[in-house]
Amino acid sequence: MSYRERELLYNDSNVGTIQATQIREDGHERTRLQKPVKLQPSWEENNLPDDELNFKNLTMDEASLQIHTPPDKYNLVYITFLIHGIGTLMPWNMFITAISYFTEYKLDAKYIGSEFEYLGNFMQIQTFCAQVPNVLFNWLNIFVPIGGDLTVRIVWSISINVIVFIVTIILAMVDSSTWPYTFFYLTLVSIVILNMATGIYQNTIYGMAAKLPPKYTGAIILGNNISGTFTTVVSILSNLVTKNARMAAIYYFITALFILLIGFDTYFALPLNRFYRHYELKDKKMQEQKKSSRTDAEKQPFLEIIKKASPQLFNVFFIFFVTLATFPAMQADIKRSDPNFFIEDKEIYKQVLCFLTFNVFAMIGSILPSWFIWPKKQYLWIPVTLRFLYIPLYLFCNYQPIGIQRILPVGINNDYLYWFLAATMAITSGYFSSVAMMYAPSTVPEHHASIAGMFAGAALITGIFSGILISFLWPWLVSHVGY
């Protein structure tokens, strides 16, 4: 029987296909063809120009993320970088806070039965072992692809920190009175390894934040200062609750371990966040375009990046140089001048006017750039350079280093004036360091922002190291210079 066929095309939305249907004269129909939909044939073409292939090899979700910038819902990404800011400095803050655990317990003559020859210089030795690898690996992390891409480096660095703290907690629990030198060298090795990992961690987290808007770099700085405040509060509370240096140290180290584990968990949550993935895809696309546009012989223009970012790199370096030249080395040895000052206890005076004041006001300073930013990047060096005046001002306070006979006259005898200096030094440190770190990535082309952020992180830790080194000069200065 002859019949006439008509083909009807319709879209089956359930299976995402197009079907061709034959309808015969007797009304019966049969499906003759079923084939996949091609929503955008141009996507599958291989001979189109690069600018027409923006969404090639991307899922629909990734393509949407490239077009639209989703909000940072509940500020989850901001909070994550804040936590990492806390985590980068928490290990070292805890080691400094627990200094009495080493000098008054584990290496004390009453515990080991004899005098330990390195006890008097333990803080200096610890600081040197910490800062040298920290500076070295901050810079090395920029030029050498240690451990793969940025995120992989963070996973490894946090993991190493966690292992070191587990070992440190075990050492705190065991009786080491018969092997003090072994304990001493194990502690130094732990500090070296810890700061090697921390150097990579700190530098890398600044590189990751540089891909995002500037306020996320500010979140890291804020986290750094929250870390110091938190550690100081823990120290003050522990002194009120227990006088046992061993138990206090265990609490410190477990707290640091807990913070690191939170940072580890939040890292794995980042790729699930649409806001973060938007900027990751944006950065990935820029890197691929940059790679395709240069020859294999071309490398990262490090010198060009340093040249363009150098004003802000100087600002970052000098801010932390002045800060660490005075805090805590000088401030911790400034004694009460007025016998009627409302804080009578010497230890509480130091904890409040030195550590708590610095960390609280530095934290406040880190928050301020989220409300306003001043001055413009080309003028930032002026207030940054003027902060150098804090060094001679502190020298003229009642600075009395232990075991040193001061001959330089004390010019500032007012405890409230010293407290004002301490507060303004801290707030300018927190504020200008945040502004400089936020400015640094914007001084170079967008595809170099991550490298510029890593250079800024390296300048930060170099400023810290240089400030600590020059702080050893102040006891000699006040004991040899007078008029």
From TrEMBL:
GO cellular component: plasma membrane
Domain of life: Eukaryota
Membrane topology: Multi-pass membrane protein
Transmembrane domains' residue ranges: 76-102, 154-174, 181-201, 216-237, 249-270, 313-331, 352-374, 380-397, 417-439, 451-477
GO MF: nucleoside transmembrane transporter activity
Presence of keyword Transmembrane helix: yes
Keywords: Membrane, Transmembrane, Transmembrane helix, Transport
InterPro entries: Eqnu_transpt (IPR002259), MFS_trans_sf (IPR036259)
Subcellular location: Membrane
Protein family per UniProt: Belongs to the SLC29A/ENT transporter (TC 2.A.57) family.
Name this protein carries in UniProt: Equilibrative nucleoside transporter 1
Organism: Rhynchophorus ferrugineus
